[in-house]
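User: Can you fold this complex?
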Amino acid sequence: MSSLIAQLITRKNESVIKAQLPPFVIHFFKTVTLPTIGILVFLLFWTVGANNIDTSLGKFPGPAQVMTQVGNLYNEHVESRAKESAFYERQDNRNQARLAKDPNYQVKTRTYTGRETFVDQIFTSLITVLSGFLVAAVIAIPLGIAIGLSKSLNTAVNPIIQIFKPVSPLAWLPLVTMVVSAVYTSTDPMFAKSFIVSMITVTLCCIWPMVINTSVGVASLNSDWVNVSKVLRLPALTHIQKIVLPASIPAIFTGMRLSLGIAWMVLIAAEMLAQNPGLGKFVWDEFQNGSSDSLSRIMTAVIVIGLIGFLLDRTMLQLQRVLSWDKTTEVR
Amino acid sequence: MSLTKNLLLDISKIDMVFPTPKGDFTALKEVDLKINKGEFISLIGHSGCGKSTVLNVVAGLYQATSGGVILNGKEVNQPGPERAVVFQNHSLLPWLTAYQNVELAVKQVFAKTKSPKEMQEWIEYNLKLVHMDHAMHKRPDEISGGMKQRVGIARALAMQPEVLLMDEPFGALDALTRAHMQDSLMEIQDELNNTVIMITHDVDEAVLLSDRIVMMNNGPAATIGEILGINLERPRSRLELAKDPIYNQYRSEVLTFLYEKQRKVESISKTKTETSSSATNVA
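Assistant: Here's the predicted assembly.
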């Protein structure tokens, strides 16, 4: 068996193996068995490694501790939800009792202010990253098309893009925080300030890959298609709508996938630094908490963050498959 | 007199000079050609001689440095659907089906003169003309190279052009498909009698399809070397013509022009620089 695996991995004597095994077995082996082996080997290294690292908060968490924490975190979430509904039930009962006593009583409802659970933080982070990403896309794609179509605009704007592109979100964060505090001052805000800060930071960081990819896609438009458009005398708007936009869809999606990846990384860091609600805050809180469970809870968060990032990327890829005419996109 | 009466297109002494970092490059010098309505003209010459440049000037995609192109008494200075182009590599839009590719052209040209129903019939008629009605809802990546080129021709024909410009339309196809496409094109010509300017590298193709073959000198400063009128009965059949002495006479005249009078004598290294400059300037 081991020699068979070695042969499959090195792709030597592939024809010999094909002759021995039916094709569906080989397919199953390649798509299921190989990744499983990879994960098992990783878990083994992780367990061994974790057992050999001692920290002031105990041993480094291995897979078993993380599994326990997944259960704990979920249970905490369920408990918190139960407490919340109990709180509202009590409040309702109290208010109704008071109303029965005194019909003129002004009913006061207070919102539940329990600590956000891990699951809540996941959703906060997801909503923030998607809003920031969407705002960036709304700005970046039209801008990218304009830059791609006009060489002069490209020459004018390119230095600015190149300078802002490598800036870390953490450098923006204090500025964004101060500006939002100064500008966004409504007494009854629709969004929390922390949400706006995180979102703008995400937007600022993921706008650039989209602008660059869109503009490159538009600028490298097949000259034959441009000629077709010229021969047909398509008006400028029809030209953009019928030729430029569909032609650059693959490049736009490449930019969007890059951006979404960056957005997710940026968000976690921003939440950690700014103490804005989300997975980053969860990690930081656990670190500050410093209990014996902290490290395994952080490790759980790390894995969840990775899984969500992976799912976001796959979702984009599927969206691209559906929307793009270019079906040759590699799965990587 | 009848010649001037039917005059449709007058390519009048065009010069084409491209500015390059090393100074001006004269691609065309005094190219002068008058084309009558319904004529099928082939432009033949070695690579880099400026055939495509002539076509692009007629199409309006390039502006001649001096001289001009007059279509029906009006000067041409921008591209337009009355001079439809069949591009060498089909240049269909890959995100549209064959039908939609033709539709884009038809909607642009006939939006005011045809009803939606008439437009649909017209699109289907043109796709039928090139024998693509069976695959009209397929996208370019689902059909073969020859079929793509057919759709490209249908798109150009659907614009009902005054002149049909074809830039090596069958150059990228294999020999059998090419022969098949030439027969189709002759069949369409019998029916529509379009005015056509076609660029080709293929001597047989030129003799088989053309009324006149325009042979171009080598560049730089390329111009028309000789014009050969082809007086062969239509419809023409490639099998019968293969044995026809007159056909073979025409064929050898073109070959003589290309390989004796205009034989390329540059060394390989010079050809390399020439093709690279022609790639940026001419192509």
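The mean pLDDT of chain B is 86. Residues 2-79+168-281 of chain B form a domain with the Rossmann fold fold (CATH 3.40.50.300).
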